[in-house]
Amino acid sequence: MPRTATTLPPSSLASGTTAATGRFNRIGTAVHLGFGLLLVASAVRYVMRHSPADNLLVLGLGASACVLYAIIAVLSQRRRPWALWMFVLVAVWAVLVIAAPSFAWCSFALFFLCRTAFTGAVAYVAAGAIAAATAAGLFRLSDGSDLAMLLGPLAVGALLTLIYDRIERDAAAQRSLHAEVALAQDRLAASERRAGTIAERERVSREIHDTVTQGLASSLLLLEAANRTWPEPSARQDLRQASRLLRQNLSETRSLVHELASPGLDASPLPEAMHQAAAQYLPGARLLVTGEPRPVPPDVRHALLRVVQSAAANIKLHASASNATLTLGFLPDTVTLDVYDDGAGFDPAAVAPPSGSGGYGLRAMRQRVEQLGGVFAVESTPGEGTIVAAQLPAKGEE
User: Fold this and answer.
1) How far apart are CA 386 and CA 388, in angstroms?
2) CA-CA-CA-CA torsion for 101, 102, 103, 104, nearest 10 degrees?
3) Exposure pattern of 71-83 as b/e (b: 16+ CB <10 Å)?
4) How many Cβ atoms sit within 10 Å of the Cβ of residue 88?
5) SS3 helix, strand, coil % of the chain, rounded to 5?
6) Computed over its alpha carbons, how large is the radius of gyration of the chain?
7) Can you say how many angstroms the Cα of residue 182 is from the centroid of all Cα atoms in its chain?
8) Helices 147-208 and 361-371, interaxial angle, to 10°?
9) Which member of 5, 130, 175, 345 has the greatest number of CB atoms within 10 A?
10) What is the pLDDT of residues 56-75, one digit of tens each?
11) CA 134 to chain centroid
12) Where in the chain is the domain with CATH 3.30.565.10?
């Protein structure tokens, strides 16, 4: 049966209404030139060796084969079915090669053209008919005395069939492999997009927790305290502090919308910025610096500031601490941070998982540090205070 239409890549020269047309286009130039040259050479050889009376029928068959071939070439270029014309060409050429074995050389071009036109058993039958007609013509040329003339074309036809089948199998395997690679790339791209979306959501959730949530929680505590002690002077102080925190929180929220950065903290040296970040929640916090202060990469600076903000907010909300100390250490290839408070402490192993009521602070701090290749730890015991420690690689400069 003729090949049915298949979909081929737009960049391929083999696109058309049938897969046969597609493969014909890929080797079309070589087949056209080969058939034309061999047909002309065979016709000249025959004319030179036979009388005009013998030439008439043979040249008529040769002209018919040439016309049929031209029809096939035109139909293939216009991407129209041409397998039926190939049947007629094979029949005409079989008669021609038996009558005039000089045209046996055209067998090679016709073989590849035939394998391009047909698939499955039909392709083998057509190729076998070409080999058999060639063998019959050459055996007739030897007056039936040369067995090699009979077996040679059959052997060559079988060999060419095996080679062509192997090429087709390799091409099909390559196309299948390309399709699998393309599918795997699409899946990988989709997976990376999903992972990027999840990572971005987690990053934004940490930013909101360390800025908006912590600031609002501290402001709420101050307002509740002012409400309980009103109209005592301490209530007015709590109101002023809550107002200041809300303004800072508003600034942080605007900054979160615009590049998720803390205005006022990125322009100052790291120790000063960290003290300012802690003082938002713990006005009495102390800062100790060890080593020679130096600029650190922006992502490391941002992570340290957020850890300080989150840890200070936790001390304010949960620890009931009298003192809090920040220790910033500059080592040759790393920077360290310890946040200590002498508050109530807790059992780190018993911390509840994050929920709608909170619990994101420690997880967010750990994620920030570990995503930059650092180490994060929490040491605490009920009634004995808490130490939040972070160590980050910091070889580069801001």
Assistant:
1) 7
2) 60
3) ebbebbeeeebbb
4) 14
5) 65, 10, 25
6) 43
7) 8
8) 130
9) 130
10) 788 888 888 888 878 877 77
11) 53
12) 269-398
CATH superfamily of 269-398: Histidine kinase-like ATPase, C-terminal domain (3.30.565.10)
* E strand intervals along 136-260: none
The contacts of residue 187 (CB under 8 Å, 6+ apart) are: none
Question: Distance (Å, rounded) from C-alpha 324 to C-alpha 311?
Answer: 10
- The 10s digit of each residue's pLDDT in 240-294 is 777 777 777 666 666 665 454 444 455 688 999 899 888 888 888 999 999 999 9
Rounded to 5°, angle at Cα 208 from 310 and 325: 10
Find all residues with CB under 8 Å of 225, minimum gap 6, and list them. 234, 235, 238
Q: Which amino acid is at 64?
A: S
The b-or-e profile of 256-289 (16+ CB within 10 A means b, else e) is: beeeeebeebeeeebeebbbbbbebbbeebebeb
User: What is the β-pairing status of strands 324-330 and 286-290?
Assistant: parallel
Cα 220 to Cα 253: distance, rounded to the nearest angstrom? 17
Token code pair at residue 152: 């040679």
Rounded to whole angstroms, the Cα distance separating 226 from 243 reads 12
Structure tokens at 379: 């040491």
Residue type, 395: K
Q: Judge if pTM exceeds 0.90.
A: no
- How big is the CA angle at 218 (ends 214 and 221), to the nearest 5 degrees? 140
